[in-house]
Specification:
This protein has 12 helices and no strands. By secondary structure, the chain is an all-alpha fold. It has one domain. The longest helix has 27 residues. The chain is globular and about 50 Å long.
Amino acid sequence: MLAILLALGTAVGYGVANYLAPVLGRRMPLATVLLGSQVAGLVVSLLLTLGGDVGMGAGGLAFALGAGATNAAALACFYRAGRTGDLSVVSPIAAGGAIVPVVVGVLGGDRPSALQVVGIPLVLAGIVLAAARPRNPAAGNPTAGNPTAGNPTAGSPATGPRGTGWALLAGLLFGVFLTTYAQAAADSSAGALLWSRVGLVVTTGIGVLAFRATLTARPRDAVLVLVPGLLLALGTFVFGEASRLGLLSVVSVIATLNPVVTVLLAYLLLRERLAGTQRIGAAVALGGVALLAAG
């Protein structure tokens, strides 16, 4: 049960971060959001592992650094998707990457109970439904019927092929990240957190230099940029603990409930309307979590 609660904590932390970071990315350079938030995440990781044993074997260290590098690429793709598409659409697409650790976990010997076998596809289906939007004449016009149109921090563009493509790539990379991070955490939870953050920041920094990206932010936004990194670091830490206490194929799916959180925030703060399928999806996802916990 504790593993389930920790995985839910990951979902909340990731969900809030995945709402805030793309919204910030609409009013400042993407590189600023990526690098600023992840430097903050590294600081949090240092504090969380202070006095702990962060030593790792060669294999665990390789998994941790690889997880960080993969996470950096996944976040870059997801934030890019969030700038070109609706958060309530790209978020569950990216969450589909949960298929990767599920497959790896089962192939590695995980044997979920009957209830959990039913719960896993329910959660995945609920995530997809939670962000489904009915197509209507206004769908192609992000300003139609939207009282927040014209405000880049309060609205979102319609999702096109490019946004979907970036979200799909982000999902694949997130799935690889969850899998490799769990492998690293099996060696050392503290070491996995710290060294994956190091890998994430270094990879992001290399990307910023390679693409000569602009790093600018207004003073009031500079503080907000730190928040996603803090939440992602905390969420990653509790996911590592959850993967140590529970089945990878179960906790990884629960952790991907974060799109439900993102969709709810978009509804409350961006005034995006939840369609009937989205309400059903949230209920189905939560029902799936109940089955996972009961198993």
